[in-house]
Amino acid sequence: MEQSLEIGFVVALQHLPARSRALLLLRDVERFSAGEAAEILDEGEPWVGDELARARATLDRHRRPRRAPPPSPRAERVLVTRFVSACETADQRALAALLAADALLTVPAAGFELRGRHPVRHALPTGPNVRLLTTRANGAPACACYVRSGARLHADSLYVLTLEGEHVAVITGFPGARVLRPFGLPRVI
What we know:
Number of helices: 7
Strand content: 25-35%
Distance between the termini: 34 Å
Mean pLDDT: 86
């Protein structure tokens, strides 16, 4: 499977039942024929056609339309820096201004979704006990979130940001310290 699968696609896949997800991946990502997919899933080819149409329709309903990214790498860096600053200083006004009106906070592993600028800003960890280190995940800007426990900051989660123009449109969360290991980030700072 390609390593460059878009985060939005992965999030949308979470809305499919396991067999539909497997079928969609076999046909649309791995490019197996209908007959090969039917054999792998122990189903008939008519089921493959019908189920694939339903899976694609479900996927289309849950994928966000692509909007314009920030106009330049510099604009992206500025936006991410402002986001980090707003979170670490608990500047709720600045954070609200940075989030798109229809901002989405999602944690695919937990099946969690929260939509809207104000609900999302209140759900994000903020304040002096939070530190965000910037990185990149799947080509997108991301923040490793650390939360204070005693004298140290402990790795808590990774947030992958989808930026649209001058706003953060989607924040995809991946909880746990282990998720930071591939990025070479410390568990404790």
